[in-house]
Each structure stands twice: as C-alpha cells, then as structure tokens.
C-alpha cells in the first residue's frame, strides 16, 4: 500500500497517537496521575474556580466522570471545593498549592518529553505537522 493511501495514513496517525499516549502515561507515573487528572489540573489551574460541568466540557467527558476525576484530585489535596459566590447551590474547584506545584512540574516534564518526541523531526517538518494536524482537527 502506498503511504498516501487513506487507510495507511489513518493507521500511521493512530500508531503515532498511541505512542504519544503511552509516553504520556509513563511520564505521569512519578506523580501517580492519570492523563485525565493531569489535564484536569491544567483546566482548573487556568481559571479562578471551575465548575465540574465546565471541567467535563473541557475534558470532553461525562459530568459523572469529571466528578470522579475531581474527587481523586481532592482526595490527594491537589484541588479543593469552594462555594461559588455567584450561585450558593454550586461549588467551584480551585487548585491548592500542592496542585499548582505538581501541575508545574508535569508541564516542565511534558515540554521536555515533547521536545524529545518531536525533536526527531526537522524544524520545517514540525511546522508542517502542526499545520496538517490543525487542518485535520478543524
């Protein structure tokens, strides 16, 4: 099969994505985080309080699953639930100091891993790959 065959391209893309996911899970092992928990820390840390429903939307998971992710992070002291000043019935997830520290450590490790993973490509190939992936994702 030629490399420009749609089936081959799809398989190559899936193989590359699986390799990246495997690297990502391995990278998170020292912090005992799942990929969903790591992504949740980034989402929660980006704002000044995040509702679970907003977390679910950002992670593209069911609200029940987002609650489980938040519960796991809260049990470890990485996030805390606080009352939402705009709605007394709702709560917001806020990052703790420990959560910020881990989020920042993971970000440094992830950036280094991405440099190593994509560093096998020439600079112009990385630019082309980013353009192509944006096109496919859009």
From TrEMBL:
InterPro entries: HTH_MarR-typ, MarR/SlyA-like, Tscrpt_reg_MarR-type_CS, WH-like_DNA-bd_sf, WH_DNA-bd_sf. PROSITE patterns: HTH_MARR_1, HTH_MARR_2. Keywords: DNA-binding, Transcription, Transcription regulation. GO terms for molecular function: DNA binding; DNA-binding transcription factor activity. GO terms for biological process: response to stress. This is DNA-binding MarR family transcriptional regulator. It comes from the Bacteria. Residues 6-138 form the HTH marR-type domain.
């Amino acid at each position: 099969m030629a490399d420009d065959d749609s089936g081959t391209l799809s398989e190559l893309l899936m193989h590359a994505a699986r390799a990246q996911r495997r690297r990502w899970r391995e990278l998170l092992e020292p912090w005992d985080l799942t990929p969903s928990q790591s992504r949740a820390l980034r989402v929660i840390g980006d704002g000044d309080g995040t509702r679970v429903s907003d977390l679910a939307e950002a992670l593209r998971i069911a609200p029940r699953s987002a609650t489980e992710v938040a519960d796991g992070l809260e049990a470890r002291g990485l996030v805390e639930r606080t009352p939402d000043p705009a709605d007394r019935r709702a709560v917001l997830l806020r990052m703790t100091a420990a959560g910020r520290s881990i989020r920042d450590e993971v970000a440094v490790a992830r950036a280094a891993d991405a440099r190593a993973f994509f560093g096998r490509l020439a600079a112009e190939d990385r630019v082309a790959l980013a353009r192509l992936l944006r096109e496919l994702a859009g």
